[in-house]
What we know:
Radius of gyration: 39 Å
CATH superfamily of the largest domain: Histidine kinase-like ATPase, C-terminal domain
CATH topology of the largest domain: Heat Shock Protein 90
Structural class: alpha/beta
Largest sheet: 5 strands, parallel
Number of domains: 3
Amino acid sequence: MKVPHILLVEDEKAHMALIQRAFQKRKQTVELSISRSIAQAQKFLAERKPDLLIADLRLPDGQGTDLLSDKQEILYPIIIMTSRGDEKVAVQTIKLGAIDYIVKSEHTLLEMPHIAERAIREWSHIQKLKQSRLEWQETFDAVSDLIVITELDGQIRQCNLSAQKYFENELIDCQILEIFSTEHTLKEELPKNFEVKLGRCYFHVSRSPLKNQEPHGFVYVLRDISERKDFEVKIQHTSKLNALGILSSGIAHEIGNPLASISARLQRLQKKREPEFLEDSILLLENQVARMGRILHRISSFSKSPSRKMLRCNIKNLLEDTIALLSMDPRSKKITMILKVETPLRETFLLKDQTQQVFINIGINAFDAMVEGILTISVLLRDDHFEIIFADQGCGISQEDQEKIFEPFFSTKEVEKGMGLGLYLSMNYIQAQGGNIEIKSEVEKGSQFIISLPLLETLPSSSFELI
């Protein structure tokens, strides 16, 4: 075991002798060195670092606190002694970095071995704590995710190096809401998990409480998901092309019918020019052109690049458009689609394009699962959220497959019929809006896909771009 080395800086012989005798009496093994002035102590310290320095406040060439004030970093514990107690001096001494301040008396000098042992032990604990804090800070700054720690009221008190570099400004004492540039008031809370675009990148943000016994702040972790978002855009485009491919023969048929009607009427117009027939023909041609326009508009709306902003829309209207698109699938001739809306629906804010993609994906899956039958689409309003239920009469899904059905690239279909990304993307789109998708299914009895979406009658934030 290492023998502690103590440097005593004392010019009064009686006090010096009393301290030496105290260590000898306790039979405490220490190496005790003595300096009688500040200059001698500084010369000694330049050559060797003690485990503890005990210095008198008043010395021939200065004050014991001079051994504190001329050092940027204190490398060992220092105890300051004085013959007269002074509260202001005591406070100043501790502020300068002394580990203890004692008033000289026969009792305290005889207790010096115990005081020294306690000081060395406390110093060891302090150094371990500093090392732990340093290691924590280094780890904190090494994390590539952006980490921001706030008080309960949202005031930022700490952030890691990644956050400082990304935002390129001083975050400490700012409000967390300023980062997200929202119009929330301090009474409102950000969601526990959400996705947002900040500057050039997209982030997934998770918020967790900091707790001792009671919550005293929050930690926000911002993970860059820009690459994932770019990948999802490409996959979504592929998924839409796949859906359009499935619907293509039906689309040709839907456009072919009004074209055939227009062509037939034009042929008749070459032979029949009566005013009444002309008027009737104009009306028919206008209706058929409008019908083709509606079909092309639905296809164009579905195939365009999706908006990443929340838009106000009516769930019923969105489902009616979805049914119209699904009706272009040739398989829909043997499948009856029923839309049930039991109560008047209020408009809500949604990622409209992505939500319709979800409806199309689940509808096509239902067609794949049954040769004929009924696809029932129900909308229910539950307090603060909607439930949209797609119930088919198809082959059903086994319990084993249900556990994996939302995983990327998992599919029970043949390879040429799908890549296994439709339900994976669907879950991502719904969860990005604070919702969820559940499945209930029995083999040979059919499946229910239950989509839950929050009822948002006002936009969470006008400048908030959910993704």
